[in-house]
Amino acid sequence: MESSSSSHHDRHEKTLTITQIEQLGVEEKVAEIFQILNGVSPHTRSLIMELQRDKHIEFLTRGLRLLGPSYHVLDANRPWLCYWILHSLALLGEPLDLEFENAAVDFLLRCEAEDGGYGGGPGQMAHLATTYAAVNSLITLGSMWALSSINRDKMYKFLSQMKDPSGAFRMHDAGEMDVRACYTAISVASILNILDYELVKDVGSYIVRCQTYEGGIAGEPGSEAHGGYTFCGLATMILINEVDRLDLPRLLDWVAFRQGVECGFQGRTNKLVDGCYSFWQGGVLALMQRLLPIADEQLKLTFVPRSCLSMKSSNNSRSADTGDSPGLYDDLCQSSTSHQQIEGKLPDVGLAFINKKPNWGPLFNSTALQQYILLCSQVLEGGFKDKPGKQRDHYHSCYVLSGLSVSQYSWSKDENAPPLPKAVLGPYSNLLEPIHPLYNVILDRYYKAHEFFSGRQAQD
Q1: φ, ψ for residue 187 (rounded to 5)?
Q2: Does residue 310 carry a pLDDT above 60?
Q3: Residue 433 falls within a domain, yes or no?
Q4: Among all residues, which ones are annotated catalytic?
Q5: Distance from the Cα of residue 123 to its chain's centroid
Q6: In a domain, 328, yes or no
Q7: CATH number for position 426
Q8: For the purposes of burial, counting CB atoms within 10 Å of the CB of 11, is it exposed (0-12), middle (13-18) or buried (19 or more)?
């Protein structure tokens, strides 16, 4: 005969949703893993928290050489595989053999479409997602051949063709239109120094419509707030110098509450923790560190209707002729130049943003996130996974490592200076390379690309 406590437990389980049951299962697995830290010496704790750098490099390098038959489903994502692996190796500070570098550049050149942009493989149609991956891969490689292989004239033509009259971008010819497309297009144009008013026109209005009642940003108007789209939307609004049009206090509130009891981030409300959101959500909070003055100003103006705070003219510019005051974001760009005044080219927001030092510490529990990454997402044989019970893969390896880097540097006032030891969980040898949080490329590769494409402006 069943005990009353057992019967009560069974009845309780029947009242839970599938999602709640899965959540409790994940929490139980994570708690079991975290218990190994109880009562161990500081030296043992440091060893447990060690980043298995050599194993990760081995796993990633093997992926560059040869991928098994199971990867055939990613045939249209091959530039993404390049980016995930190359960026992960760069984060780990692992130099690439010249043979691999030359092979990667040669392959990506064969992915370039005749009219600009990059497809998922040689002969495939150009797509904004794989274009972003290819450009970031070439910038991560960083050689003169890699950087000069990018045809900026053809790229601008492709990006212009993907521009929709609504202001948003389509992922490919006659393809879907969403915030991800806006980010990949604007990010590529920004880092290649080809961003102009025509590409920016009305993009901000589209993204503003995608911010939900929760505060996060959805993929398209009317959809649910999502961590990946929130990063894409926020980064895009920064790059086009219109971030003050978003409700930043509400956005910050939504993202901050996505870090759960497991210490990692979930991508949406009431969803399970996932290692990749270490970057998609952690990256949003890294961006918000530099935007707190704007959020604070918006809070002070809460007595003003939101429509007034975000209202702009139909061309999204502040006109000096009408006497409009400089925007909240102008100090970040170190310029009050409007879109129209610069006659095409936009201010270099990417450089201004990274040079703007945050005056606040992290907006999330960076130590807790590192603990989740090292104990629950790291695979000791190499690579990273979504959560306990899942398999490792190159996608999660890339974005978990990106999130780990963001966490380690979250207390730093200067990304060019190494963080204090207390900011790095585990041995200090765990420290990764810093990234530019708007583009998710290694910071020194960003500086090299910035110098290269700025120098070529006069030639082009």
Answers
A1: -60, -45
A2: no
A3: yes
A4: 226, 268, 271, 274, 276-277, 386, 393, 396
A5: 28
A6: no
A7: 1.50.10.20
A8: exposed
